[in-house]
Amino acid sequence: MADDNLLLYSSGLKQVLQMPVRHENNPVIPNDNPWELAIGYCSVHRDPTTGEYACWYQSYAGSRAQDPTRRVTLCYATSKDGLTWTKPKLRLFDFNGDLDTNIVLVGNGGRSVNYGASVLFDPTDTKPGKRYKLAYWDFTENEGLQTPGLCVAFSPDGIHWKKHSKGPLLQGSYGEPTQPPFSNESDHLPADRPAISDVMDLMWDPVHEQYCIYSKTWIDGPDGRRFWKRAVARTTSKDFINWSQPQLILSPNSDEDQQFHGASVFYDGGLYLGLLQRLDLGGFDRGGSGNMPAELIWSH
């Protein structure tokens, strides 16, 4: 039990947090391909009929990529036990001419890279081609401007993806931390705040029957400068296309809090449980180790 709010009497009871133990053979998915300079952000789904696991992960290649759409890609791996993973040669997208890759989606090749691998399996969708849903961050060109924000894609099997034709569905915030207060906003910044940013965690909320994205956002500094520290915002949708104005739900309010880089949330046992990514960096990224330990959070 994460929360004792419903306990009438708790004398003699002690709440003990069971700490997870790292597996001895980490990492279980190594960055051993040319397009895998660094691996981050992943989603895992277990097929209840076969018991097999599928994993979608963000792979960063950076300057290794000759094609800008391959600087960050979405990759796919499978496992029977969650420990030993296979990267199938899907031959869907090449990397520098090599078609034997496990890449299942590439970016738009905007002024920066795309991010994210937040995948949701939705067995209730009546359209088989939309059973797998993906929310990610990318740059879309509109009237000559590179606009960042929320993009989505759909798949019948988690391997063959089709991007939604419109993007971004929510304009994102992506600017310089030293931007002075009250200056004119750049064209690529949204008018409404808080705005989503380039870390997104997707979930299905069974209580309110809606899709939710918990996203990184930015809060201002004490002197009014933008992009001081990272925080967490939440946006919802009934149809996965039309998303609500993001709301700030969790933000650092002391030096000890450092920064909140994102949160993956799920619902179980009457509570919303989450793993908060607490980034050890100071305001405007000054100081700190850069480590990002996960902390347990919950909400009613």
Q: Encode the helix/strand succession as letters.
A: EEEEEEEEEEEEEEEEE
Amino-to-carboxy terminus distance? 13 Å
- Please compute the radius of gyration using only Cα atoms: 20 Å
Q: Quickly name the level 1 CATH class of the largest domain.
A: Mainly Beta
What structural class do you assign from the helix and strand content? mainly beta
**Low-confidence spans:** none
Mind explaining what this structure looks like?
The chain is an all-beta fold. It has 2 domains: 35-168, Glycosyl hydrolase domain, family 43 (Tachylectin-2, Chain A, 5 Propeller); 186-300. It contains no helices and 17 strands. The protein has strands at 38-46, 53-60, 72-79, 85-86, 103-106, 115-121, 132-142, 145-155, 162-163, 170-171, 200-205, 210-219, 229-237, 247-250, 259-268, 271-279, 294-299. Strands 1, 2, 3, 4 and 5 form a 5-stranded antiparallel beta sheet that branches. It is globular. It starts with 37 loop residues before the first strand and ends with a strand. The relative contact order is 0.10. The mean pLDDT is 89.
